[in-house]
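Data availability (excerpt). All sequences and predicted token strings are deposited with the supplementary files. A representative entry, TVP38/TMEM64 family membrane protein, is shown inline so that the format can be inspected without opening the archive.
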Amino acid sequence: MASRIAVVLVVLGAVAVSWWLLRVLGMPATLSPDSLAAWLQSQGAAGPLLLMLLMLIAVVVGPIPTLPVSATAGLAFGIVPGTAIAATGAAGGALVAFWIARFLGREAICRRFPDNPVLARDGSQRFLTIAILLTRLIPVFSFALISYAAGVTALHTWRFIVATTIGMLPMTLVFAGLGNTFRLSPVLTVVAALAVLAVMVWLPWSFSRHPDSRLARWLHLHQ
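Structure token line:
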């Protein structure tokens, strides 16, 4: 366990150094898309790499919003290249958060919930993949929180990355294309998020009572 904590501390230290480097290079403190885009364009060929690094940090740290960074990508580099750059950085950050949680919490979760159809060692890969995909589609869910939460589940790494990448691409493309002029409806996004969350909580409980239902078998939620 001590070695795992040491690895995580090294990773977090690298993130802190990366943030310091961005500030030394002149990154605006406000993180507004317009000012960030102007700064990135002034960095020449290093601009896309710096944007990826900023997105990675935003995902790992959590409180730093990722959608303004996506808007910045479109403003600085264009819709398609900006989307690719932002998505690559977000996927990298999600993977770092995923593995931090897996290193620190997965074994404890397995011991605490040995028979849970989602959290156990043989938890449903199909259900977890769909859950990650749906939460990535709705930006109101914290990108960082979902990544950390996924790390303590049974979800395979490759499934996590595929679901994350596919799920985040639509909104990343929208924000890269429309920049900071696009606004989400708070009511609709919250309602949609609550609906998805309710379904994901209810399904395992419901199928534990009806393990032989067709949907339970398809989702591999039966024990």
